[in-house]
Amino acid sequence: MSAANLLIFLGDPRASHTIIFWMLGGLSLAEWWYLIYPLAVLATDGLWLLARGTELTALTVGDETAASLGLAIERLRIEIFACRR
Length: 85
Fold this sequence. Notes:
The chain has six helices and no strands. By secondary structure, it is mainly α. The protein is elongated. The model has no long low-confidence stretch (mean pLDDT about 85).
């Protein structure tokens, strides 16, 4: 947070007003088309999580139990990490 404040302080004074307004919660300058990318990521990750629901549930009971059910635990963990980005 302090690094962001330093950049605001050192930056363009005209732009700093807009940035501070946005950081304080002002959404009047927000536009809906900015949400296309986050919506796409959320939809993709949500569909992946829904498709892997049973594997994720099996993973909650422990690694040994999940492995005995035939899950590739390391591969699933890497996929979960990639999903989090």
